Amino acid sequence: MKEADRVADLSGLSICVLGGDRREAELISGLIDSGARVSCFGTPTDGLRSEAAVAPSARDACSGANAVILPLSGTDSSGNVKITSKPVSITRELLAAADPAAIVLSGVVRPCLAADCAALGVRLVDTGEDDELAILNSIPSAEGAILMAMQATPFTIHNSNCLVLGPGRTGLTLARMLQALGAHVWGAARKAPGRARLFEMGIAPVDFADLAHCLPQMDIVFNTVPSLVLDRSLVYLLKRTAVIIDLASAPGGVDFIAAAERGIHAELAPGLPGKVAPLTAGRILARVIPRIIEDEFGKGERKVRSLDEEHRPGR
Ligand code: NAP
C-alpha cells in the first residue's frame, strides 16, 4: 500500500538542531532534503550529512536561526537538553540569538522553556501534541512494548490475556498488534466512544470503573494513560505472575511500589521508538518535523513522496 504524501519546502530557512541521538541524523537529512540550511550542536556526528554545519557552540548553532529544534524528550526541569553528546542548556540568552521571529520545537514543554519563549515572544511548538507524529511513533512504541513483555514473560503473547489501558494513539496500535499475535485483548477506556472503537476492533471494552472485574484474569497489562490508573488496590487484584509494562510519560500510571510489594514485574518503558527502532524513529521525525515547520511558516508548494518509500529500512 502506498500513501502519496508531500515533502515540505523549507528553502530559505535556517534551522538549528540542538542535541539528540541517531534519530537527529535522519531528521537533519530530511530538513536538508526540504531545502533548509542546518546547523547543529550536541548532535552525534555519525551519519550526519556533509551539508549540515556542526557549530562550535550552541549559541553559534542558534545564531539567526528561523527554527530551533530540541529532541522529542525536550529538556529536564533545569532546562538542560536531555539527549545530547555535549551539554546544552536552553537559556533565554541562547534563544535570543535566534531570529526574532523564530519558532522553537520541543517534544516535551517544561515550564522554564515556556516562560523563556513567552518572554522573548518566540512561538513554542509542542511537537509531542502532533497527531501525525504520535500515530507514526505508536508503531515502534507498540513493537517495543511487546518486546519488553516478551522478555519479561515465560509464556507467549499468543493465547495470553492482555489489557491495554487507554484507547489513544499508542493504545489502539498496541491493542491491534497484540490481537494480530493471537492474544486475547481487553481495552480500558473512560469514555463511551473509546469503548465503542475498541468493540469495533474486536477488543473487549472495559470501563475503568469495572477494571476490578477483569484484572484478576490478566497476564499482561500495558498502560498508556499518563495518570495513576492502576493504583494500589487494583495492583493487588493482579496475579503475582502478571507483568505490567507502563508506556505513559513519567511517572507513569502504575503504583510501582505496590507492584514490587506484591512481587509483580512492573516496568516503566520510556522512549521506546528511539531504543528499539532509531532508524524508523528518525525517519518519522524527518517526515513530520519539516511539515510542522512549513505549517508554522505558512509556506505553500510541496513535492510528492510516498510514505512507505520513506519508511522502507533499506532506503
Ligand atoms: P493519547 O492519544 O492522548 O492517549 C491517551 C489515552 O489516555 C486516551 O485514550 C485518554 O482517554 C486516556 N486517558 C487520559 N487521561 C486519563 C485518565 N485520567 N483516566 C483514564 N484514561 C485517561 O496519547 P498517546 O499518544 O497514546 O500517548 C499516551 C502516553 O504514552 C503519553 O504519556 C505519551 O507521552 C506516552 N508515550 C510513550 C512512549 C514510549 O516510548 N514509552 C511512546 C509514545 C507515547 P480519553 O480519550 O478519554 O481522554
Task: Tell me about this structure.
46% of the residues are buried. The protein is an alpha/beta fold and 315 residues long. A 6-stranded parallel sheet has the order 4-3-2-5-6-7, with helices on both faces. A 6-stranded parallel sheet has the order 10-9-8-11-12-13, sandwiched between helices. The chain has a two-stranded antiparallel ribbon with strand order 1-14. It has helices spanning 22-33, 58-62, 92-96, 111-120, 131-152, 169-180, 192-200, 211-214, 232-235, 256-262, 272-276, 278-297, 307-311; strands at 4-7, 14-18, 37-41, 53-54, 67-69, 103-106, 123-126, 161-165, 184-189, 204-207, 220-223, 243-246, 265-268, 303-306. The protein has 13 helices and 14 strands. Strand 11 (220-223), helix 9 and strand 12 (243-246) form a beta-alpha-beta unit. The chain folds into 2 domains: 3-129 and 277-306, Rossmann fold (3-Layer(aba) Sandwich); 138-273, 3-Layer(aba) Sandwich (Rossmann fold), CATH 3.40.50. Helix 5 crosses helix 6 and helix 5 packs antiparallel against helix 12. It binds NADP nicotinamide-adenine-dinucleotide phosphate. NADP nicotinamide-adenine-dinucleotide phosphate binds next to helix 5, helix 6 and helix 11. Residues 134, 137, 141, 166-171, 190-191, 194, 208, 224-227, 229, 247-249, 269-273 line the site of NADP nicotinamide-adenine-dinucleotide phosphate.
Annotate the secondary structure layout:
Layout: E1 4-7, E2 14-18, H1 22-33, E3 37-41, E4 53-54, H2 58-62, E5 67-69, H3 92-96, E6 103-106, H4 111-120, E7 123-126, H5 131-152, E8 161-165, H6 169-180, E9 184-189, H7 192-200, E10 204-207, H8 211-214, E11 220-223, H9 232-235, E12 243-246, H10 256-262, E13 265-268, H11 272-276, H12 278-297, E14 303-306, H13 307-311
Parallel strand pairs: 2-3, 2-5, 3-4, 5-6, 6-7, 8-9, 8-11, 9-10, 11-12, 12-13
Antiparallel strand pairs: 1-14
Helix pairs in contact: 1-12, 5-6, 5-12
The protein binds NADP nicotinamide-adenine-dinucleotide phosphate.
NADP nicotinamide-adenine-dinucleotide phosphate binds near residues 190, 227 and 273.
